[in-house]
Amino acid sequence: MTNDALSSTYELVPKTWDEMHTDPTNIRSQYDVINAYLKKTSPDILYKKEELSKQLFMKQGVTFTVYNDNEGIEKIFPFDIVPRIITAAEWDKIERGIKQRLKALNLFIKDIYNEQFIIKDGIISAELIYSCPNFLREMKGVKVPYDVYVHISGVDLIRNNDGEFYVLEDNLRTPSGVSYMLENREISKRLFPGILPKSNVRGVSNYPNMLYKKLKELSIKPNPNIVLLTPGIYNSAYYEHTTLARLMGIELVEGSDLVVKNHTVYMKTTNGLKQVDVIYRRVDDDFLDPLEFNAKSVLGVAGIMAAYRKGNVNIVNAPGTGIADDKAIYIYVPDMIKYYLKEEPILKNIETYQLGNPEEYDYVAKNIKDMVIKKTDGSGGYGMLMGHEASEAEIKDYLENVKKKPENFIAQPILRLSTAPCYIDGQLTPRCIDLRPFALSGRDGIDICPGGLTRVALKKGSLVVNSSQGGGSKDTWVLQ
In what residue span(s) does the Circularly permuted ATP-grasp type domain sit (predicted)? Predict the structure, then answer.
């Protein structure tokens, strides 16, 4: 296959925004450099680059977990060599929109666990808040440093066929994927030496330093003891836990490595107990403290919540932040922005239906083939119903389950996610993508790493990009 054939085989998906092409013959200007490189590079070289990327990922041990794969759950993370490129103007809007959204969400969390003005003013019902499985009554009245609850977030964006970015969901509990963003960039540097500086691509490698700075700010000590609390080696994001701990130069610990004495958290060392000041936890709320949540948990630390309430340790993200990324709460984020900030949302929500509302349930049921239904506390692409792919029997069974607790489900129209060129089987072919930029909040404001994780639905025609569901990723280039 010639290089011309490599380009000529690319078929645009009808009524879908393509990141690289405006039409079959025209390339968007931000892709000029990489397109010229692909044209002059032989298929054999591109194949070798693809194989090199696989070898590098295998050597680094970059893995993820597919829980429903009969061949084994541990997989090397699929990577597509063709980068996704975002212009400076596009990134400016994304950055402003995410900062606005996070300011409002943080104010919402503070309000809900304290005065609850948003309930008293009738913007959100008390019933919705208290029925949310991620609402922690244990956080009521707890003061957190600098009133920052959400220190680390990964806001999922999609570009619809109108070319606009929409917020798919807010990941505010223990967002993952940043290690893949970092590794993707390191691979791109090896695959395309000289191309990144020529394209004026902004760097992402400073993320661990940015994160460490935010964590350090939380303590009044000049050199606080910061640890990363992991559930352990069987967690799907364990590779990320080890990578971030190593890059920040902090200890990676499990629950059994920590102990609470006199409302103070200590780490067990060969030299005795050492006080812990800041915990970047990757353990979910329910498993964080067996004395207050799941009594059977062996992943957390008994008494850690009491130490947190006393102000003797800082936990990142704050417990209870899941109230703000519940899919039932997502519907109200534009209202939060208007209520707390007195501003119009910069980034739009996707139209969302609450199935606890009988009228909205009836509408969704009648238009089920055009809908995706999700659990309000779901994540990772699990437990969804894609109406256009499901059989009549599957739809009937799913709706019967929804009827048992309809308030625990939401529905959204099936969107046309934008496509980007992927190098698959020696050809450039379009695949659906989304984008997860990573934001860090602290006492000095919000910083957003100029890039993010672009996830790819590797199966042709699929809209499911989650790595746990067999998706992959590609490097994200944000231009200066």
Answer: 83-457
Average pLDDT over residues 71-92: 84
Q: Left if phi > 0, otherwise alpha if psi is -120 to 50, otherwise beta: which for 455?
A: beta
CB 374 within 8 A of CB 367: no
Q: Rounded to two decimals, what is the model's pTM?
A: 0.90
Residue count of the chain, please give it: 480
With respect to CATH, is domain 351-413 assigned 3.40.20.10? no
Domain 206-316 grouped into CATH 3.40.50.11290: yes
Closest CA to 168 of 297, 350, 416: 350
- 90 vs 189: CA distance, rounded Å: 23
CA 396-402-405 angle, to 5 degrees, is 155
Q: Which residues contact 373 (CB under 8 A, 6 or more apart)?
A: 355, 364, 384, 385, 387, 398, 402, 409, 410, 411
CA distance 430 to 415: 16
Q: Where are the domains of the chain?
A: 206-316, 351-413
**Side-chain-facing half-sphere of 297: CA atoms under 13 Å:** 23
